[in-house]
Design brief:
Elements lengths: L5 E2 L11 E8 L2 H13 L4 E4 L5 E3 L3 E8 L4 E5 L3 E7 L4 H10 L24 E2 L2 E2 L4 E8 L4 E6 L20 E11 L21 H15 L7 E5 L5 E2 L1 H10 L5 E3 L5 E3 L1 H7 L6 E2 L2 E3 L6 E4 L5 H19 L8 E4 L2 E3 L1 H5 L1
Parallel strand pairs: 2-5, 3-5, 4-20
Antiparallel strand pairs: 1-2, 6-7, 7-12, 8-9, 10-11, 10-12, 13-19, 14-16, 15-16, 17-18, 18-19, 20-21
The structure holds flavin-adenine dinucleotide and uridine-diphosphate-2(N-acetylglucosaminyl) butyric acid (EPU).
């Protein structure tokens, strides 16, 4: 084992200055399996990474980071749809651009989401009215101990809001190696969210939706290349109808999103803004001024600065609204993932 520490700065969009004992980029399933099994034999912690856009390094990682570069896009055509089989290490936004260029519509609402295709099913990425589950046909998942791959149908993936089986049963010891997408030839534009409502349904094109989504995102979300961040730091809380009703009575402008099961999703960004926390900072970490749900690395923040800021945000929102925010971002400690709520509570 190499004793030289490797910087993880290029591997996390928070741009935190953590290190790992080893960083290995893998391009094949065989390499991925070998590196993982070797680390297991040496009883070394392993962390699988895509582009590090949904993680927070709390401290240096005392093990091997495996960076997924499993590439390749295969397209098959059926009567009613395009079927894309995509390597887990492909970049998500480049896939969206590729599909649009080739006339396969359905991914345009999910433009500009950072990260790898293989990470997309884990939290069922979503934006502007569409989630991965709407376009996912299957996910190929590798059992790292046995080296066997199995295919899970979209239904088996148990997709929920920022949730899937890959955060539960298929979390430890598994790697997503490919994702199958099904893009229907009969295009149904989704124009329910934000500025998309303003587009003309009679003439709208996938490119217009793509452009509008890119425009909205660029106006609110900080570019990680300029300002370190991991997108929404917290999930939007889902509460029961009674709680939502009482919030509405006290705050008539509170955004509420009724869910199919009768519950109501609240806008965490709105709750945080209402606590006057936009621009609030702890050490080098701050609440983004354009989008309060995003915590940023403003000035050489450490993982501890971000944790302290997240703690403060959670406490203030909790004491004002009795709604307790939970991180969407995954927290990585020295030897592996930690319970994020436990860390900031
Ligand atoms: P990573 O951060 O590298 O990994 C995330 C987790 O998945 C880690 O626990 C890791 O161990 C695990 N993992 C990674 N690869 C694999 C694999 N192949 N097999 C098994 N486990 C694996 N998300 C949304 O849903 N919607 C948005 O609109 C959105 N906007 C964002 C905007 C910005 C500016 C940023 C920085 C992030 C945003 N995100 C959004 C969050 C992020 O883009 C997604 O969560 C993305 O899918 C993470 O991909 P990644 O490759 O960077 O994952
Ligand atoms: N709002 C405020 N103040 C803020 C931020 C938001 O009042 O500082 C209000 C907005 O005005 C709006 C509502 O809150 O009424 C929702 O805001 P927005 O449309 O910006 O979306 P969001 O709920 O903050 C979610 C996702 C994003 C996704 C967008 C667009 C989560 C946790 N976040 O954000 O996903 O891009 O919707 O669909 O569900 C991510 O997961 O990393 C992410 C960026």
């Amino acid at each position: 084992m190499s004793s030289q520490l490797h910087s993880l700065k290029p591997f996390n969009t928070f741009n935190l200055d953590a290190s790992a004992e080893q960083v290995v980029v893998v391009e094949t399933v065989a390499e991925l399996t070998a590196v993982w099994q070797n680390s297991q034999h040496q009883q070394q912690p392993v962390l699988l990474l895509g582009e590090g856009s949904n993680i927070l390094f709390l401290e240096d990682f005392q093990g091997t980071v495996i960076v997924n570069h499993l590439k390749g896009i295969r397209v098959e055509e059926s009567e009613s749809a395009w079927h894309l089989h995509v390597g887990a290490g492909e970049n998500w936004h480049m896939l969206v651009q590729y599909s649009l260029k080739n006339g396969f519509s359905g991914l345009e609402n999910l433009a500009m989401i950072p990260g790898c295709v293989g990470s997309a099913p884990i939290q069922n990425i979503g934006a502007y009215g569409v989630e991965l589950k709407n376009v996912c046909e299957y996910v190929d998942v590798l059992d790292l101990a046995s080296g066997e791959t199995q295919r899970l149908s979209a239904e088996q993936c148990q997709f929920g809001y920022r949730d899937s089986i890959f955060k539960h049963q298929y979390q430890a010891g598994y790697a997503i190696v490919a994702v199958g997408l099904l893009l229907k030839k009969q295009w149904l534009p989704v124009m329910t969210y934000g500025d998309l409502i303003k587009l003309d349904p009679a003439t709208v094109s996938p490119q217009q939706i793509f452009d509008s989504v890119c425009q909205m995102r660029s106006s609110k979300l900080p570019d990680p290349k300029v300002t370190g961040n991991a997108g929404s730091f917290f999930k939007n809380p889902v509460v029961d109808a009674e709680m939502a009703q009482s919030l509405r009575e006290n705050y008539p402008d509170a955004p509420l999103y009724p869910q199919a099961d009768g519950k109501v999703k609240l806008a965490a960004g709105w709750l945080i803004e209402r606590c006057d926390l936009k621009g609030f900072s702890v050490g080098g970490a701050a609440v983004h001024r354009q989008q309060a749900l995003v915590l940023i690395n403003q000035n050489q923040a450490t993982g501890s600065d971000i944790v302290a800021l997240a703690h403060e945000v959670r406490q203030r929102v909790g004491s004002k609204f009795n709604v307790w925010l939970e991180p969407e971002v995954r927290f990585i400690g020295a030897r592996g993932e930690k319970d994020a709520v436990g860390v900031i509570a």
